[in-house]
Amino acid sequence: MSCPHPRTLLPGLVAAGLTFSGCSGDGSQVLTLGIPTTVQDSGLLDLLLPEFERAHPEFRVRFIAAGSGELLALGARGDLDVLLSHSPAAEIEFVEAGHGRSRQTVMENDFVIAGPPSDPAGIRPVHDAALALVHIAEAGTPFLSRGDDSGTHRKELDLRAEAGLSAGGAGYREAGQGMGAVLRAASDLGAYALCDRATFLNLSETLELEILVEGDPRLLNVYSVVEVARARQPEGARAFAEWMRSAAGRRAIASYGSERLGVPLFRPTG
């Protein structure tokens, strides 16, 4: 069986039982990493993987990009070795159920609510993210939800629950897609969307959207690295988790975005 090219493995291939062991042609061991689409669409992954492989040439990383909920489901089946996630409550449940060996926070940024510059729902002066969602719903203006059990989607649902607001109603649509795809669609539709700041800034030059609500403490976006209990490559999983928290990993995280955008897009933690 030939290796998927170049690095990406579709979740459907994993569900179909694709085997990864022995897939690398250079003698290195294949490490299967799950990453949220926010990490891929922000561009951070393109920095992290080469840096990790330079530090650990014995491993070759193949990655699956999906929402955190789907990644945790793949991990529970043993289809991943290690994963990054930004859905804290789901991660804790994952570890407590015995699916994860360890969970450690590694970085953070924040969520924002983006929307059309004309701001038809009038949320620009609002600093309460839950209240902003109420205004959008009451105005009946388009709101595009991830709708995919990702960390972003769960944050949206948490904010709606705090506001006593259900998902749905006039203007509400679920995309079932990754962060970059949702932002592009929201731009085309003139819709609002909850998104992570890093992906928005990485794509902002291609979007007809502006950040309208930010700074609410509830919009903190925390990422953790989780080693999977049923990992086929437990040594690689441990190496990746340790590298993400090492001085080299922290430098890579902290540097991303500064050169092109003038500001770092993630902050290392732990």
Question: Could you give the topology of this structure?
Answer:
Layout lengths: L10 H5 L13 E8 H5 L3 H11 L3 E8 L1 H9 L5 E4 L2 H9 L3 E16 L13 H11 L3 E3 L5 H12 L9 E3 L4 H11 L3 E4 H7 L6 E4 L6 E9 L5 H11 L2 H9 L2 H4 L5 E2 L2
Parallel strand pairs: 1-2, 1-3, 5-6
Antiparallel strand pairs: 3-9, 4-7, 4-8, 4-9, 4-10
Descriptive keywords:
270 residues, alpha/beta, D-Maltodextrin-Binding Protein, domain 2, 2 domains, eight-stranded mixed sheet, two-stranded parallel sheet, 12 helices, 39% helix, globular, disordered N terminus
- Write down the domain tally: 2
Largest sheet data: 8 strands, mixed
- Indicate the CATH class of the largest domain: Alpha Beta
Q: Provide the residue-averaged pLDDT.
A: 92
What shape does the CA trace take?
Answer: globular
- Structural class given helices, strands, pairing? alpha/beta
Helical residue percent band: 25-40%
The sequence of SSEs as H and E is HEHHEHEHEHEHEHEHEEHHHE
- In angstroms, what separates the terminal alpha carbons? 40 Å
Total beta-strand segments: 10
- Residue runs with pLDDT of under 50 for 5 or more positions: 1-6, 13-23
What is the CATH third-level topology name of the largest domain? D-Maltodextrin-Binding Protein, domain 2
CATH architecture classification name of the largest domain = 3-Layer(aba) Sandwich
Determine the CATH superfamily of the largest domain.
Periplasmic binding protein-like II
Q: Give the strand content.
A: 15-25%
